[in-house]
Records
---
Amino acid sequence: MAHKIILDTDPGIDDAMAIFFAFQSPDIELLGLTTVYGNVPVTMAAQNALTLCELAGKNDIPVTKGVGMPWVGEESTYAHFVHGEHGFGHIKPEPPKGELDPRSSAQFIVDMARKYPGEITLVAIGPLGNLALALRLEPELPKLVKGVSIMGGAAFVPGNVTPVAEANIWNDAHAAEIVFAADWDLVMFGLDVTNDVPFAPTFVDVLAEKNPTLGGFVQESAQFYMDFYSQNREDRVCFFHDAFPIAHLRHPELFELTEGHVRVGTGTLDRGQTVVAPKGTTPSPLWNDANTIKVATKVDHSRLEKLFIDTYAL
Ligand code: RIB
Ligand code: CA
């Protein structure tokens, strides 16, 4: 049975790897790419999503442009230092030929949820402004989707933008608080698992060998990304954070999850901190009255890597 998903994304090199993984997955029905600012400005994210669809020959996949600003505060400074000037490392992509779907990302999410009630998993691999806005457009949205899987947060490990905050949540902490407080089934794939799986250069070389077009693009774009991640390290590595939620949809047995009450920091020091209290671990009503989510805490590294390689090889 195929998993119907909408992928909310800020492509982005690891987003590209995840998007191609979804395209290659026979048990994933990708209804659309809804873009958001984060790694790059939202206009670039939208054009990059069109580029990735065209590279993969998926010109029938709707691509929308979403929020370009955080719920509260200043415009982002983006992450070109991680993903490169155009979002794909040293690659300067040709302008895509395709057109965007005229709807906003939030409107597309609401329209699809109404069209396929209870069937869609929202997979968010960028900041959460589109999901927060969709909740405001359609307050019944949690009843209309099957669930939400996000790459973001850091429950029991340090952050990657501040000592306590991961980039997707830090980029739009108020939107994240809205999304985590909604009454839907949410699974968070944070740095607890994604930072635990460093990929060596040989991984992208194998992807390129198995799939010269898509794997070759990942291999080429990841060189800049590996330069960033390998600073202050002995070994050369990179982290493909965004494919984890999709891997879990397909093979949940590769992951261990824990459940807890979650709150998101929205202050100066705790901006974007995802504080998860497993049930029964705190007397505080600030957490015990908050929503519970599932958090991925462990993943089978070798089986995950094999899944990525085998899927690119299809
Ligand atoms: O912290 C990693 C996350 O931030 C990934 O989604 C990456 O693409 C960036 O958006
Ligand atoms: Ca991303």
---
Amino acid sequence: MTKRTPIIAGNWKMHNTLAESAALIEGLTKNFENKQNAEVIVAPSYTSLAKVAELCKGTAIEVATQDVHWEDKGAFTSAVSPVQAKDAGATHTIIGHSERRSVFGDTDEILNKKVAAALRHGLTVIFCVGETLEEREANKTLSVIEGQLEGGLKGFTEEQLKGLIIAYEPVWAIGTGKTATPQQAQEVHAAIRKYLAGKYSDAFAQATRILYGGSVKDSNVDEIMAQEDVDGALVGGQSLIAEKFRRIINFN
Ligand code: 13P
């Protein structure tokens, strides 16, 4: 284990009604146990955001949005601004999730504007990167990830990016049940840290938490978290099941 405080984050994606969200928070917080003193974050959908934030008040669980628009307000039908996200109780936001990139067409340029908006309003950014299977097989994993980091974080100083969280989520491992091996995760995480050290500073690289995401389960979290450069997990499917997510929070 590293000295960085681990983070276990749950991305609920487009799941849960209000009642289901409340039940999940109840299941998570009842006799809450956090052996590793991990930072615990949940990212509900917008409809549940305020409710979940309310329920998490006074608990050790922090709340994130799954995305954020780059403007504070305006004629952007269906979008949610960082001002609204904060108002509803979010302290963090995911930006650049692969589903945003591939389904909704978020480009590096758009993501860069979203990062700027989040930072402007003091939301902690969980910036996602990851390669497709095709890119991995073509040996392009590291160059793809470097390009995503370059594009999304373009123009910010190390000072501005302080507190940034990066999530490495190989696209081929998301929702497929196919997890990267601990060695594959470690290799990419170490490369990301090296990139951060080169681009910013060694201190920044050492302080930045890098999460792994992609079919993290109660049964594989321990070996993934045992990797030196893996500082946490961004969990999809299993974050929707209280007992599973509780076990992931209490990884060994
Ligand atoms: P799964 O854990 O369902 O593979 O999802 C990972 C993910 O996309 C988290 O953001």
